[in-house]
């Protein structure tokens, strides 16, 4: 109910009367008053004027379930698009772990579109078993659980879909400072990484049980952990601006829905490839793709509709890389 009241206050451009809230939600005056006080305790600044009602003046930089959900509710009270539920943790090991645990326990399709989000992760995980530093209150640590009806080999495309949405949002809050994508899914600003995506899947050969798209965005971090200072940065450190994280989560969700629909419509990335390649920092640069059994060095040309990176070797032969670690010369220390 608190979420509905928050949403009603957010969507109104003037005062909302207590009477109106009572009637819309079938609750008593005392209940309205109780929820208003709860919101104030959480840091919301609500003005109340006798005979006019309540108006939201300011909101805290929090990513609680009601804060995020209130931003994603349609007028009919349902969440937008595929979004289904927000699960919030003040502290957890890893939102990817929580999403996977829930999916394994539930074992049906009812979790499609659930977003797991944490204020702090104690065991944040990056790609290839790396640790992901996830301090309190200054980043977005979230995982979207999807149960799409697509072939398992297409699941890696969801990473590209999410990366595009994250890139758009980071670009919007960063004003004139341009950011780009390092294939497949790092968002980079001034040569340093600002976000990362870890996509994990449980599937059979031809059937996906679930995909978890885990997204980490360094938003208001003022000091980068010394272990990653040379390669990582934050929106705040690059732009000098602090951003309310729920604004970014809401914008990400809307943009993701848009790109996800494009992906579902065609079953590949054909509607997104141009936009992605425009922002690909690898494009036209020397790259080194490292596999378990060797490496390819060449010029990156862009991605194809399957999300694979096309690399042109010195002998002009074009190779496509589906997954793996790709270093770009001049970025994160590759010389
Ligand atoms: C990378 O190595 O670039 C991927 C980093 C992904 C980090 C995010 S934070 C939210 C989610 N939970 C995790 O444990 N990892 C992902």
Description:
The model has no long low-confidence stretch (mean pLDDT 93). The radius of gyration is 21 Å and the shape is globular. It contains 9 helices and 14 strands. It has 335 residues and is an alpha+beta fold. Helix 2 packs across helix 3 and helix 6 runs antiparallel to helix 8. Strand 1 and strand 2 form a beta hairpin. Biotin (BTN) binds next to helix 5, strand 5, strand 8 and strand 9.
Task: Name the features.
single chain; 335 residues; alpha+beta; 7-stranded mixed β-sheet; 5-stranded antiparallel β-sheet; 30% helix; binds biotin
Produce the secondary structure layout:
Elements: H1 2-11, H2 18-25, H3 29-42, E1 45-49, E2 53-58, H4 65-71, E3 85-89, H5 95-106, E4 114-118, E5 139-146, H6 156-173, E6 179-182, E7 186-189, E8 192-204, E9 207-218, H7 235-239, H8 245-266, H9 273-278, E10 286-291, E11 294-303, E12 309-312, E13 318-321, E14 325-328
Parallel strand pairs: 3-4
Antiparallel strand pairs: 1-2, 4-5, 5-9, 6-7, 7-8, 8-9, 10-11, 10-14, 11-12, 12-13
Helix pairs in contact: 1-4, 2-3, 6-8
Briefly summarize what is shown.
The protein has 335 residues and is α+β, with helices and mostly antiparallel strands. It has 9 helices and 14 strands. The strands form 3 sheets. A 7-stranded mixed β-sheet has the order 3-4-5-9-8-7-6, with helices on both faces. The chain has a 5-stranded antiparallel β-sheet with strand order 13-12-11-10-14. Strands 1-2 form a two-stranded antiparallel sheet.
């Amino acid at each position: 109910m608190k979420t509905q009241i928050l949403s009603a206050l957010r969507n109104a451009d003037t005062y909302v009367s207590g009477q109106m809230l009572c009637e819309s939600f079938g609750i008593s005056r005392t209940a309205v008053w109780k929820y208003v006080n709860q919101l104030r305790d959480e840091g919301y600044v609500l003005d109340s004027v006798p005979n006019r009602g309540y108006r939201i003046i300011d909101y805290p930089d929090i990513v609680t379930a009601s804060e995020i959900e209130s931003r994603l509710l349609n007028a009919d009270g349902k969440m937008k698009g595929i979004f289904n539920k927000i699960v919030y943790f003040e502290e957890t090991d890893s939102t990817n772990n929580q999403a996977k645990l829930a999916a394994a326990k539930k074992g049906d399709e009812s979790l499609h579109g659930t977003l797991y989000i944490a204020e702090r992760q104690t065991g944040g995980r990056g790609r290839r078993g790396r640790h992901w530093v996830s301090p309190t209150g200054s980043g977005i640590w979230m995982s979207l659980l999807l149960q799409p009806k697509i072939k398992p080999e297409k699941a890696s495309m969801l990473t590209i879909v999410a990366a595009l949405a994250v890139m758009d949002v980071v670009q919007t809050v960063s004003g004139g400072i341009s950011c780009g994508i390092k294939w497949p899914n790092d968002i980079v600003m001034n040569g340093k990484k600002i976000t990362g995506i870890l996509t994990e899947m449980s599937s059979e050969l031809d059937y996906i049980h679930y995909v978890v798209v885990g997204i980490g965005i360094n938003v208001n971090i003022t000091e980068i952990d010394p272990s990653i200072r040379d390669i990582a940065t934050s929106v705040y450190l690059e732009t000098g601006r602090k951003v309310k994280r729920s604004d970014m989560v809401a914008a990400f969700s809307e943009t993701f829905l848009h790109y996800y629909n494009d992906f579902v419509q065609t079953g590949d990335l054909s509607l997104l490839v141009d936009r992605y390649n425009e922002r690909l920092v690898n494009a036209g640069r020397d790259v080194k793709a490292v596999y378990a059994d060797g490496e390819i060095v060449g010029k990156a040309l862009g991605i194809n509709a399957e999300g694979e990176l096309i690399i042109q070797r010195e002998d002009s032969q074009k190779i496509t890389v589906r997954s793996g670690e790709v270093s770009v010369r001049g970025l994160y220390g590759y010389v």
